[in-house]
């Protein structure tokens, strides 16, 4: 019972923490966010902006997203389902399982404002039964990623990227995909909000995102 209460308190702090995290990111990274019309010095090329778009239920993917956004000077957007998932891990597992079995794709929330202004999108998500969360299918189908470079990153208990790169290729028609990053996340039954990632994941997120951006722009 006590664990459940703690989990509930943790998840109810999400909104507050999310706001705090965005403010901290803005303070830390404001000077490095690219303007949409910034011209790369000496090349005469226009440098489109970079975005980190992510979904996270218990914080692992959010923490990686914040590290990546800071490392590459990107804007950040939180993807959300139209209806929030239950607070309980088991209820979320059961609901997602029912949706998978019925081949249902629940609606997603708001779209990325001004996606046209971004050339590169780092896309982060947790792995839910060896796949993308169901509503992410809906979200990705509603956005036009043609001509953009997508860099996927996942967090999971053990499934890595779980074949989601192939799914993204199908859903995001016309996008160019660069090799993704798989990070360790919460284990089975994990139900509390995390507010940091371990040092190794932090370092991998930074170096992967910077290397990806260099590759995309070359
Ligand atoms: C509904 C559900 C299904 C999951 N399925 C898997 C899975 O198939 N493989 C895996 O390694 N982890 C699985 N997990 C664990 C999550 O991928 C992991 O805890 C992730 O880091 C959570 O990210 P978040 O904190 O950003 O929400 C699942 C978690 C949930 C809630």
UniProtKB/TrEMBL annotation:
The keyword Cell cycle does not apply. The chain crosses the membrane at residues 20-41. It comes from the Bacteria. InterPro entries: Flavodoxin/NO_synth, Flavoprotein-like_sf, TAT_signal. PROSITE patterns: TAT. Residues 50-184 form the Flavodoxin-like domain. Keywords: Flavoprotein, FMN, Membrane, Transmembrane, Transmembrane helix. One of its GO terms (molecular function) is FMN binding. This is Flavodoxin-like domain-containing protein. It comes from Cognatilysobacter bugurensis.
């Amino acid at each position: 019972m006590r664990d459940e209460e703690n989990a509930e308190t943790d998840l109810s702090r999400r909104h507050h923490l999310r706001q705090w995290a965005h403010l901290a990111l803005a303070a830390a990274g404001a000077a490095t966010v690219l303007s949409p019309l910034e011209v790369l010095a000496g090349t005469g090329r226009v440098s489109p902006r970079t975005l980190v778009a992510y979904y996270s239920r218990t914080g692992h993917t959010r923490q990686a997203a914040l590290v990546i956004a800071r490392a590459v000077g990107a804007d950040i957007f939180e993807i959300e389902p139209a209806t929030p998932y239950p607070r309980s891990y088991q209820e979320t597992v059961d609901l997602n399982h029912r949706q998978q079995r019925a081949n249902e794709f629940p609606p997603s929330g708001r779209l990325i404002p001004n996606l046209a202004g971004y050339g590169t999108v780092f896309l982060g998500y947790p792995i839910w039964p060896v796949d993308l969360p169901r509503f992410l299918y809906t979200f990705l189908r509603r956005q036009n990623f043609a001509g953009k470079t997508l860099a996927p990153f996942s967090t999971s208990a053990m499934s890595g990227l779980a074949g989601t790169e192939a799914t993204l290729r199908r859903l995001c028609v016309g996008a160019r995909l660069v090799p993704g990053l798989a990070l360790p996340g919460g284990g089975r039954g994990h139900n509390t909000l995390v507010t940091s990632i371990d040092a190794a994941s932090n370092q991998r997120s930074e170096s992967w995102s910077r290397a990806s951006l260099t590759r995309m722009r070359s």
